[in-house]
Amino acid sequence: MDTKEVKSTVSNLEKAVDDSTILKLLNILHDDVQPTEKLLRETKVGVIVNKYRGHNNPQVSSLVKKMIRGWRDAVQAEKNSRKKASASPSASTSTATSVASTPPPQNKASLSSSSATAPAPALATRSYVGPRDAKKDGVNTQIYDNETRNASVAALYGSLAVERQDPSIHILAIAREIENAVYMAEYSKVNESYRNKLRTFIMQIRNKKNPELRERLLSKQITSERFIKMSPNEMAPEFLKKEIEKMHKQNLFDAQGATEKRAVTDRFTCGKCKHKKVSYYQMQTRSADEPLTTFCTCENCGNRWKFS
């Protein structure tokens, strides 16, 4: 069956209601479809057929499971054959290259003299492609008997390694220090508090906009014990700290600007103590065409009143 025929059969299958029609169409697909990755992607036949896996009719569900299993195996075999085909030329090329680059044999005297005078080879610098993590770096994080602690160390390693080129052994050491500090702070227990704290710390460290935090941790400007006691504001990147400070100053200014300006006068008389030293301020408390409301406070007894 070509792509067009498969799509047509799938369309009829979606419209089918009775079990006999569904079984008939499924058998057609089972017998006539030659599954390839391209065909399955274009027609989405696997997606449609898979919907009948939990069908009430056991014949339908059994046939669907058999079809899906067979198609999956066929596609996997296709992928494996492609991999083998692509690997063969590269293997032969590398073999030819190694043979061509093999130096001619030398006598023992020349080898000993050259080894004595030749400088020691420099250590190769590893160039990391893509995001780093413990598995890609070949780092063993199976340190403890507790899997949660091991997973925490691995997650901390991946967070500390974001956009970093530090040696793996150094990153692992810092990750272990942080995890152990949290573990000890929780009285050597892996509990919900332990998990929540580590989730928070991992998110803060992993933040790509906060390279300063990773730098401070890996350079040990911040100790692990100090780090686990820091507030989110203290961990925030410098640009965010400046924004928070700016907002705080603006809010403080706005709050001060909203304070009522009071004036002291002797035009009003306190109805309670009859003193004339009265402070007042005015506000528009009603509609714009109404007069201002005057709020008075007696500076002598503290009595308050208002009038319009």
Automatic annotation (TrEMBL):
Residues 75-143 are annotated as: Disordered. Pfam families: Med26, TFIIS_M, Zn_ribbon_TFIIS. Residues 86-101, 109-125 have a biased composition (Low complexity). GO terms for biological process: regulation of mRNA 3'-end processing; transcription antitermination; transcription elongation by RNA polymerase I; transcription elongation by RNA polymerase II. The keyword Endoplasmic reticulum does not apply. Residues 148-263 form the TFIIS central domain. Residues 1-78 form the TFIIS N-terminal domain. GO terms for molecular function: RNA polymerase II complex recruiting activity; RNA polymerase II transcription regulatory region sequence-specific DNA binding; zinc ion binding. Keywords: DNA-binding, Metal-binding, Nucleus, Transcription, Transcription regulation, Zinc, Zinc-finger. GO terms for cellular component: nucleus. Residues 266-306 form the TFIIS-type domain. It is found in: Nucleus. SMART domains: TFS2M, TFS2N, ZnF_C2C2. Transmembrane segments: none annotated. InterPro entries: TF_IIS-typ, TFIIS/CRSP70_N_sub, TFIIS/LEDGF_dom_sf, TFIIS_cen_dom, TFIIS_cen_dom_sf, TFIIS_N, TFSII, Znf_TFIIS. Its main location: nucleus. Necessary for efficient RNA polymerase II transcription elongation past template-encoded arresting sites. The arresting sites in DNA have the property of trapping a certain fraction of elongating RNA polymerases that pass through, resulting in locked ternary complexes. Cleavage of the nascent transcript by S-II allows the resumption of elongation from the new 3'-terminus. Belongs to the TFS-II family. This is Transcription elongation factor. It comes from Candida oxycetoniae.
